[in-house]
User: Fold this.
Amino acid sequence: MKRIVSIPSAARCLSLVLTLTLAVGGVTAFVPTQQQQQHQQRYYTTGRPNVNIHHLKSNTILHLSSSPNPNNENDDNENLRIPTNVPINTTLIRQLVFNQGLIGYSIWNKGLGYEVLTRDANFNPFTTPFVPLAILGVLPLLALSYSIETSESPLVSTLNLSTDMQMLRIFGPKARPLVALGISAALAGLTGLVEEVTFRGEILPTLAQWSTVPGNLPFTVDPSQGIYYGVALSTIIFAALHVNPLGLFKGKEAAIDALVLFGLQLSTGGTFAALYLASGNLAVPIVSHGLYDFYTFYKTHLVVTGQMEYVETNIFGTGDGNGNGNGNGEDVGEKGVGRAGVDNGDDGALSQIESKWIDMRGSTFVREARQTFYLMDTNRDGVVSREELRIALYSYGINLSKGESEVILDVADVDGSGGIDFDEFLSFMGPEGSTSKAIKGSLLGVL
Assistant:
């Protein structure tokens, strides 16, 4: 193993920590406060409060209509559509770049960061296999990330929400695969470079040396073991600076969210530090970190926007884009899109259940129920499973155990298929006339 020799001064280390405290919190993950979570209905991308909002949680996007106009069906149709004129949030991108530029100042001005980078990072593929090592190193983190994304545990619901909201704020609600690819790669590459040079290249060896100085720790550390204390301490600092510390003092749920994020950042920071120690090449964690962030940014954008497009397709079909036609510029009759704003088949016919609830609650109610249903249906098979239902209910502040969600499924799944189709969902939540109230009321009547 190559010896890690970059030893900045303790003053430089303290300066880095202070700078990171101000800047790094908004780089890797945006953690919403409880108040922000309660107002996720207000879509923030453009800063305009009246734009239709989608509430994201655990990769499930639930539409919460703030003040629908029951007397204007055309306005309601437009409110359910994904806005197409939302630009890329260049202000937020500039802020993220500025934060990383501030952290990596000593790289750009050819100071200590530049010295560490040029000395300890070997990007020559002919002399070191840094790319294969980086790919192998990031695989466990990708597996962990996937398990979090697909988990129905309430412990990770806010973590998923924060990632979804950050990408929605950056790229908007419409899929932009090429633009998002370029921006994700640039942000991920910059973050990987700056944070690895800072934490693994500068702070880690500083703390390794500091830990061996008699009196700094309550016990004596052998110089040969100092590097491991440097890894532990620098990883703890890395994790702590990616968490909003105020969350620890804002109630039990906020504290749990902060601790879960802290644990995830310990895993990522520890992995990158282990890659550096094992390879002796700072290029390995730099590339690995960049790949991990790129996966998070780009995949989240594709998943979130893909889900929103899936919902819009199932509300308006593949028609002419205004919710009033059949794709040929013709108006659909009362049983088609023109009446309910939904398309329940190739012929545009509505089921008897939908017609019943249109007569009882109106087409706006059925339209919003359809939107909510298909936002819950994250695997896009036309049926809401027990897991999807449980995850979606987190967005309404209803945290069910696995057993409780099984009870709800048994009640709603009338035909015993093992999942809830739209007619069953509509019958389940329809009597209350409100998505949130109906779900809560039904739960109170069952549990």
Summary: Confidence is low (pLDDT under 50) at residues 22-76, 318-347. The chain has 19 helices and two strands. The longest helix spans residues 177-211. The beta strands are 54-57, 60-63.
